[in-house]
């Protein structure tokens, strides 16, 4: 039985005051799922301080594929690891779309995070045009395959996968639980082809307009192990309600 995991992606939102109120709210109540928040880089130290001693983990929204050097604006996994960052999103569709991240770069980022004991949350997902063209499984399969090819079985056992249909992110349109389950099962089957034990243990999260009122149905599906939550992670009550769904 895999424990449910619910990760908030704050995207480029927040302020010191707003984050403090949000984190206090999240810490105040218990959740059935394991919770984590992925904050903008300048606020990671605040998360480290305010979440210390709590059950809530924290992470970054990106990490460099490079170890160090002349990469202005990039943040190295070693820097995140140095102060205890638990997770890093890699390959979020907004990074793939606006920053041209390729499957190979995403795999390199995952490897770099693992090197410093940071759990990479590898995001995959198809656009609406790709879904309508019947290419969903081919697209997410290709995105996942780059990671499967780059990682050893031991490394694969330390990642989290997130299926986020691009057409459902921030749009209010959610995949039905059946649509999401179908893709999650296909993703798990691909991991099974590499290692059945790793596949059985791997958390595969769903992301895309998850809200308190649709989370329970999505999370009841056999291959959906929790959620990656954007908009609804900015309200403590909503985030907690999803964590208890
Ligand atoms: C996301 O940014 O990963 C996401 C799923 O956003 P939202 O929940 O707002 O659709």
UniProtKB/TrEMBL annotation:
Residues annotated as catalytic: 92, 164
Main location: cytoplasm
The organism of origin for this protein: Cupriavidus metallidurans (strain ATCC 43123 / DSM 2839 / NBRC 102507 / CH34)
Family that this chain belongs to: Belongs to the triosephosphate isomerase family.
Enzyme class: isomerase
GO CC, one annotated term: cytosol
SUPFAM superfamilies: Triosephosphate isomerase (TIM)
Entry-linked Pfam families: TIM
UniProt cross-references to PANTHER family, sorted A to Z: TRIOSEPHOSPHATE ISOMERASE (PTHR21139:SF42)
Protein name, as recorded: Triosephosphate isomerase
Catalytic activity: D-glyceraldehyde 3-phosphate = dihydroxyacetone phosphate
């Amino acid at each position: 039985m895999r424990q449910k995991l619910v990760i908030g992606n704050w995207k480029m939102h927040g302020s010191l005051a707003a984050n403090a109120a949000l984190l206090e709210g999240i810490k105040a109540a218990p959740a059935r799922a394991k919770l984590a928040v992925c904050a903008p880089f300048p606020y990671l130290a605040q998360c480290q301080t305010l979440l210390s001693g709590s059950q809530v983990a924290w992470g970054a929204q990106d990490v460099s594929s490079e170890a160090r050097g002349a990469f202005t604006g990039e943040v190295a996994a070693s820097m995140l690891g140095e102060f205890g960052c638990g997770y890093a999103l890699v390959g979020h569709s907004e990074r793939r779309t606006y920053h041209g991240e390729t499957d190979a770069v995403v795999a390199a980022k995952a490897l770099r995070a693992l090197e410093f004991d940071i759990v990479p949350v590898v995001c995959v997902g198809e656009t609406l045009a790709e879904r309508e063209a019947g290419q969903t499984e081919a697209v997410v399969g290709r995105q996942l395959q780059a990671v499967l090819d780059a990682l050893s079985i031991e490394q694969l056992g330390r990642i989290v996968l997130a299926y986020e249909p691009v057409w459902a992110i921030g749009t209010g349109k959610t995949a039905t639980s059946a649509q999401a389950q179908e893709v999650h099962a296909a993703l798990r089957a691909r991991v099974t082809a590499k290692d059945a034990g790793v596949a059985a243990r791997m958390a595969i999260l769903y992301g895309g307009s998850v809200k308190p009122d649709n989370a329970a149905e999505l999370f009841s599906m056999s291959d959906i192990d929790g959620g990656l939550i954007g908009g609804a992670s900015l309200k403590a009550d909503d985030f907690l309600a999803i964590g208890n769904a």
